[in-house]
């Protein structure tokens, strides 16, 4: 095994005993993140893209320990907000890219304060208004322009960014905008992002995007980098093959063609998805009325994690593997449901799995990307804790939020 590790870590590869110990120590729901796996994922990407600038899209997982592990591996940071920029700089990234999507004034103020204080920053603007607002605020540093590449891809339409008018300037307007910006900024690059969770069979869309970016780079010239986005998918189903990063890299190089600029990519999910699991405990099991075709009665298993802990199933109908860590039992159709008062609050519906019992510990796979990050306090539910593992050591990385933490912002309470 190399530093890059196996191509994919499945939920079954985690030690049930280790995870059970963690649940006992820190309680549930609990995110567990394996920093060694984050490092392996980073190494595999860097192996595939040896001559590209690889920037971690920190939105996938902004935990400090993860940011540091990825930074140590040699990646840069790609940030979507002032908060992410602050986190990345605090975690010691030297070069930070801020991709501003309709940036609130407060975000620009915070980011430009950091820039004035000496932060090595590149701002990616996706609208003429953003460029004007940066100029008005006295920014004259490195600027890249986000382009709408007219093509997108992703695991769900809600995360297919490329081609949507929300993101980037119209492709045909980009040369003129870039030329105009050169007077006031250090124009360094062009940027596009197809979407999130691009699978092997969507590589054609990626190729098309990259080819367009190559054409644009040759047309405008004098750029330091061409950023073709992130979005590299990971398998969520147990039988899905992993994306081959070498194949993605080859396709990218080939589609880009000869450009006098560095290739940049900005994956998020790929680095962290399979480095994380969510542990949750069963508190309620009940039969489904009138159900059962194969002699077994389907059940609903109520657990202490919900859509407020891991939103992806509710938001994108995303599939996440679920494993019973407590016992192997005869299988039956199981609906795993959270405590939130919405029917969307399900981790799976009628999935065949070992019959759960009250007190069982379940692990939900691929929870490392867009897991904790999308947690909310809906239903006044505190956000979960997170533990990180590194070698044989385990430590608490984010404390469990308390009800007081949820309610304390209220004025006059
Ligand atoms: N660059 C830009 C400009 C992006 O907008 C994104 C993701 C990335 C890079 C990283 O994409 P990744 O490599 O992680 O796929 N919450 C959704 C994913 C939303 C992604 C948004 N943008 C989910 O859980 O599937």
UniProtKB/TrEMBL annotation:
Pfam family, one: Orn_Arg_deC_N
Pathway annotation: Amino-acid biosynthesis; L-lysine biosynthesis via DAP pathway; L-lysine from DL-2,6-diaminopimelate: step 1/1
Record-listed pyridoxal 5'-phosphate binding positions: 231, 266-269, 370
Record-level GO BP terms: lysine biosynthetic process via diaminopimelate
One annotated GO molecular function: pyridoxal phosphate binding
Active site positions, chain numbering: 341 (proton donor)
EC number of the protein: 4.1.1.20
Record keywords: Amino-acid biosynthesis, Decarboxylase, Lyase, Lysine biosynthesis, Pyridoxal phosphate
Swiss-Prot/TrEMBL catalytic activity: meso-2,6-diaminopimelate + H(+) = L-lysine + CO2
Enzyme class: lyase
NCBIfam families per the UniProt record, alphabetical: lysA (TIGR01048)
HAMAP family: LysA
Role according to the record: Specifically catalyzes the decarboxylation of meso-diaminopimelate (meso-DAP) to L-lysine.
UniProt-listed PANTHER family: DIAMINOPIMELATE DECARBOXYLASE (PTHR43727), GROUP IV DECARBOXYLASE (PTHR43727:SF2)
The protein, known as: Diaminopimelate decarboxylase
């Amino acid at each position: 095994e190399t530093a890059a590790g196996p191509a994919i870590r499945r939920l079954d590869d985690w030690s049930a005993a280790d995870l059970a110990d963690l649940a006992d120590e820190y309680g549930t729901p609990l995110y567990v993140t394996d920093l060694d796996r984050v490092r392996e994922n980073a190494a595999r990407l860097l192996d595939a893209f040896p001559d590209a600038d690889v920037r971690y899209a920190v939105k996938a997982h902004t935990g400090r320990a993860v940011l540091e592990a990825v930074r140590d591996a040699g990646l840069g940071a790609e940030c979507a907000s002032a908060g992410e920029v602050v986190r990345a700089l605090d975690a010691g990234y030297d070069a930070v890219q801020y991709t501003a999507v309709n940036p609130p004034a407060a975000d620009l103020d915070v980011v430009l304060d950091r820039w004035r204080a000496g932060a090595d920053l590149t701002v990616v603007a996706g609208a003429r208004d953003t460029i004007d607002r940066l100029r008005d605020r006295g920014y004259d540093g490195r600027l890249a322009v986000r382009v709408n590449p007219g093509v997108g891809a992703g695991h769900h339409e809600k995360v297919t960014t490329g081609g949507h008018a929300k993101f980037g300037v119209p492709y045909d307007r980009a040369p003129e905008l870039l030329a105009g910006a050169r007077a006031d900024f250090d124009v360094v690059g062009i940027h596009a992002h197809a979407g999130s969770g691009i699978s092997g069979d969507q590589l054609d869309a990626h190729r098309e995007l990259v080819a367009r970016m190559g054409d644009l780079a040759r047309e405008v010239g004098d750029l330091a980098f061409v950023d073709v986005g992130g979005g590299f998918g990971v398998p969520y189903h147990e039988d899905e093959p992993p994306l081959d990063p070498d194949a993605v890299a080859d396709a990218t190089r080939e589609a880009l063609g000869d450009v006098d600029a560095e290739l940049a990519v900005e994956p998020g999910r790929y680095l962290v998805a399979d480095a994380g699991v969510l542990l949750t405990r069963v508190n309620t099991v009940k039969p489904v009325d009138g159900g059962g075709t194969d002699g077994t009665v389907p059940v609903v298993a109520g657990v202490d994690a919900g859509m407020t802990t891991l939103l992806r199933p509710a938001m994108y109908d995303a599939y996440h593997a679920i494993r019973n860590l407590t016992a192997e039992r005869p299988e039956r159709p199981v609906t795993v449901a959270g405590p939130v008062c919405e029917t969307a609050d399900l981790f799976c519906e009628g999935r065949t799995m070992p019959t759960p019992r009250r007190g069982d510990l379940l692990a939900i796979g691929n929870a490392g990307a867009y897991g904790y990050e999308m947690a909310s306090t809906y239903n006044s539910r505190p956000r979960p804790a997170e533990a990180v593992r590194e070698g044989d050591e385990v430590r608490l990385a984010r404390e469990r939020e308390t009800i007081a933490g949820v309610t304390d912002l209220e004025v006059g309470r």
